[in-house]
Amino acid sequence: MKKSINILSIISAVFAIISACLGLFYSFSGSQRVVENIYGQPITLFGDGIYANDAIMKVGATKGTDIAVIITALALIFVVFALKNKPYSPFLKCGLLSIILYASSCLALGVTLNKLFLLYLIQFGCAFFAFTMSMADLLNKKSFENDVYEKKMTGTAIFIIISGCSVLQWLMFVLPTILSGTPMEIIDIYTTEPTFVIDLAVILPTALYCGVMLIKKKSVAYQLAPVILTLLTGVAVCVICQTIMQLNLGIVIELGQLFGLVIVFIVLGVIALGLNIKLLKKAK
To answer: What is the pTM of this model?
Structure first.
């Protein structure tokens, strides 16, 4: 199984790098154009490259994610080949795969259909199966020194719960739309936002479960925690890259959005990195 996981991980990483590089650098010198969405609102499309038919804000976020994906994919390849014998390698592999899986989901479901759709499917499928098999293998063993499983790790548990609950801020966009029937402020030409689905339906309950199980000193939570912490660090990198690209495209980010959607996730990512390093030192 380990060989299959590594092969799938490499395929996913390579295709992720290819699609990300094309997303970042491919251009046919197109120009911006304005269209009307299904709600009658004028929306400016990027007009150039792979994301020509996507709204400018979405393009800024997606190109920023592309940068983060390249970093993540290179790190995954390094872990598979250079750190394969390290005791913490399975945790890093799972965490990095979760980042690529997350990004691939957003590409396959969130951007306008483009020429790279089949590449998105390949990297998504490989990342999904590699992550699933890695996670199944990881949860069925004890990878830390015995004394780790005797610690309640309340601080880490509370941090993971708080981090998971941070995605509840998406409800400030979702609930007004549901209650009033008016279109979402940031919906542009799209009908749904995959990030909302993944964060609220997957990340939130997983984080809550892990936090509670850590407090109860269940071994499964100790195995799951480093994966969540790695993902949180990856989200911070994504947010930094997305913000830089959006500002580069001339998008104005309001102070409230800068704090709630940028600074909060960066702070959480930095803390997650510190906690993860401390925990992975105990891997056996």
So the answer is: 0.95
